[in-house]
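Lecture notes, continued. The same structure-token format from the folding unit now serves as the input rather than the output. Read the line below as a description of shape only.
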């Protein structure tokens, strides 16, 4: 039994079911990120945990206590909103302690809790200011302080960084992760940003269309995506997915993939079970960073395949150079070193780490598991 248990939970608006049989068990101290495109149901699920949305069916439990029908104020959860939701007429200190005051906590205890949280978040110098005098990052720290001061069982974050500029988002991600390491709190965090999901979480629930497509660690989600949606949603640039046909060569399954000139590349699999797919079409998934030049190929891999293909476009990006080629009739991106000797229109020998390749059933779009 998890610290937070979401058991076969659904949500309907009239005849329309928007969340379908969600099962997630969150252990104490976990950092679970709900990630997916707009409209996938992640914020609805968060609001159901908070008690802001009713549950249509199923159960939600916190510390083995049933939360169905329990008022939000009785759940001992704290929520940090995208909009910060600070009271503009109150000082920072008053905003942080307002909830404690409403619960009748004595002033001495409120002040101690406020000072402890302000010190933790390094906002001591802001306590007498009003929210209108703060930057976006400072307001976000105050919103987090208001949640932290209550010492809740579960913290809920609803896209808290989406209003910040790119650099500040990176800084605040680091602060939130440091905070989690320091306090060991249980967090459920909603975002549409897959980079946030990968960097912050201990586990990720990838959602789409009201379903949890995959639940796992960041590494599991990245290396072994459950289906093509997860494969292409998680990762930047996205995983390349190209048509291929499985054949046998020297007793091993290989992928035959068309090159730009109609020639066929033969890329040997590390998965023995793909021999069962000999003669059948698949969709081959290869991450951009696993397509490199020979010198940059992973020395630990026992399965580096080579293919010569024509470069269509190169995109220098500081520490990397992204190279586009045509493979299987699709544009495929390789992630090369910044000093890779590549040029548009040139034929180039690529090294492909096939240990990291995955195969999908073209009909169901589900990964063919080893």
């Amino acid at each position: 039994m998890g610290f937070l248990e979401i058991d076969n939970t659904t949500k309907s608006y009239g005849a329309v079911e928007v969340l379908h049989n969600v099962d997630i068990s969150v252990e104490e101290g976990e950092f679970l990120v709900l990630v997916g495109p707009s409209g996938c149901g992640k914020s609805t699920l968060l609001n159901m945990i908070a008690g802001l949305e009713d549950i249509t069916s199923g159960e939600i439990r916190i510390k083995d206590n049933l939360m169905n029908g329990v008022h939000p104020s009785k759940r001992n959860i704290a929520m940090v909103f995208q909009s910060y939701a600070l009271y503009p007429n109150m000082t920072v200190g008053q905003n942080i302690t307002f909830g404690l005051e409403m619960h009748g906590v004595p002033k001495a205890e409120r002040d101690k809790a406020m000072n402890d949280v302000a010190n933790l978040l390094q906002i001591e110098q802001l306590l007498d200011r009003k929210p209108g005098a703060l930057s976006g990052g400072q307001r976000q720290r105050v919103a987090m302080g208001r949640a932290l001061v209550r010492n809740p069982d579960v913290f809920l974050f609803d896209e808290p960084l989406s209003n910040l500029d790119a650099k500040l988002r990176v800084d605040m991600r680091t602060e939130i992760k440091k905070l989690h390491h320091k306090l060991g709190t249980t967090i459920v965090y909603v975002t549409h940003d897959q980079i946030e999901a990968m960097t912050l979480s201990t586990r990720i629930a990838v959602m789409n269309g009201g379903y949890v497509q995959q639940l796992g660690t960041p590494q599991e989600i990245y290396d072994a995506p459950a289906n093509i949606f997860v494969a292409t949603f998680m990762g930047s640039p996205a995983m390349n997915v190209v048509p291929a046909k499985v054949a046998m060569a020297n007793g091993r399954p290989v992928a035959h993939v068309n090159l730009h000139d109609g020639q066929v590349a033969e890329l040997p699999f590390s998965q023995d079970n793909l021999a069962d797919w000999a003669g059948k079409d698949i969709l081959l998934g290869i991450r951009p960073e696993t397509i490199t030049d020979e010198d940059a190929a992973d020395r630990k891999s026992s399965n580096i395949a080579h293919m010569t293909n024509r470069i269509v476009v190169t995109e220098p990006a500081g520490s990397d150079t992204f190279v586009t080629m045509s493979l299987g009739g699709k544009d495929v991106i390789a992630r090369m070193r910044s000093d890779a000797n590549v040029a548009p229109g040139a034929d180039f020998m690529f090294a492909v780490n096939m240990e990291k390749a995955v195969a999908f059933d073209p009909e169901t779009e589900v990964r063919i598991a080893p």
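Point for the exam: The chain has a mean pLDDT of 93.
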